[in-house]
């Protein structure tokens, strides 16, 4: 009886350990990517409080991120088969729209945005 219980416990441990490793591997899913960057003004200074919008061009869903003091933004869990448009706004000024293409194979793309006043 003890041998069966010990065998069961060992098998249970192996199954649980395998599940944990499988979850870690999913974090490196080739169908998921991220984008990050820095928002600056026309003189190159990093902007705190800029609103970065990420638009899914298939669903038109928009996600937003407000930059901190370092001017950085990031979006994770993005599909690799969708194009995304990025734009930043701050105090009436906007950046140009940049595209993260589905043809871009980077798992972690870096796209910096420059906010400039409209003339």
Q: Helix count, per DSSP? A: 1
Mean pLDDT: 84
Major sheet size, sense and barrel closure: 5 strands, antiparallel
Helix content: 10-25%
Proportion of beta-strand residues: 35-45%
Classify the secondary structure makeup into a structural class.
alpha+beta
Low-confidence stretches: 10-26
Strand element count: 9
For the termini, the CA-CA separation is 83 Å
* Radius of gyration, CA atoms, in whole angstroms: 22 Å
C-alpha geometry: globular
Order of helices and strands: HEEEEEEEEE
Describe the protein in words.
Helix content is 21%, strand content 38%. The protein contains one helix and nine strands. Strands 2, 3, 5, 6 and 7 form a five-stranded antiparallel sheet that branches. Strands 1, 4, 8 and 9 form a four-stranded mixed sheet that branches. Strand 2 (51-56) and strand 3 form a beta hairpin. Mean pLDDT is 84; it is low at 10-26.
Core attributes:
four-stranded mixed beta sheet, five-stranded antiparallel beta sheet, alpha+beta, 119 residues, 1 helix, single chain, globular
Mind sketching the topology for me?
Elements: H1 2-26, E1 32-40, E2 51-56, E3 62-66, E4 72-79, E5 84-90, E6 93-94, E7 98-100, E8 108-110, E9 113-114
Parallel strand pairs: 1-8, 1-9
Antiparallel strand pairs: 1-4, 2-3, 2-5, 5-6, 5-7
Task: Give a quick precis of the structure.
With 119 residues, the chain is of the alpha+beta class.
